[in-house]
Amino acid sequence: MDTSRNRNNDGKPVTEAELIRRSKGGSHEAFGQLVGRYQVPVYRVVRGILGNPSESEDVAQEVFLKAYANLAKFRGESGFFTWLYRIAVNEALRARKRRTFANADALPQVEAPLPAAPEEDTPTLATLEKLLRKLSDEFRSIVVLRDIEGLSYTEIAETLEIPIGTVESRLFRARQELRALWRQSKEAKNAL
Question: Which residues are paired to 13 by β-bridges?
């Protein structure tokens, strides 16, 4: 990686604010650096909501296209990553709604069974992804932002544009629902 592009003339790293300023001025290179900084976390958020890797890649691309097209609207009142995560969550939820609408009359998908996991008290990543898909959009978004991305309650509240108290209560209820789904899946396995 060419680090000279990531540094000012004085050798110091280019700040996010400077990259945003340059991007607003039309610098594709500066926006490319912002994409480089956030492409993995944006993908993780989208993947956490959608569950499908290839669809998540497409939606993550859409997030950055939308961010670039709307960069002039970014006022800096919240952090750039908060603004970008808000776009990511909204785009992922829109994609889920489009998929749900498109698949309303389709036959259910049949997935190949995963190899049996050893009995554990915690779900595997594959099991967790399946459980997350069963949560409502509002619960899934909260869990992904907090437990997968590690955002603070304040950052989640800004990203989703809801009060902190709502973040706390939704996260509590989402975790309760996840635990119940996990117990049900374990009971179903044991019944076989």
Answer: 7
**162: buried, middle or exposed (CB in 10 Å: 19+, 13-18, 0-12)?**
middle
**pLDDT tens track for 108-151:** 443 444 444 444 567 777 788 888 889 898 898 899 899 888 88
Tokens of 6: 């990531």
Reduced to 3 states, what is the DSSP secondary structure of residue 190? helix
Helix intervals (H) in the chain: 16-24, 28-50, 53-69, 80-102, 125-134, 137-143, 153-160, 164-191
Domain CATH for 74: 1.10.1740.10
- The whole domain housing 175 covers 117-192
Model pLDDT, residue 68: 93
Which CATH number is 171's domain given?
Answer: 1.10.10.10
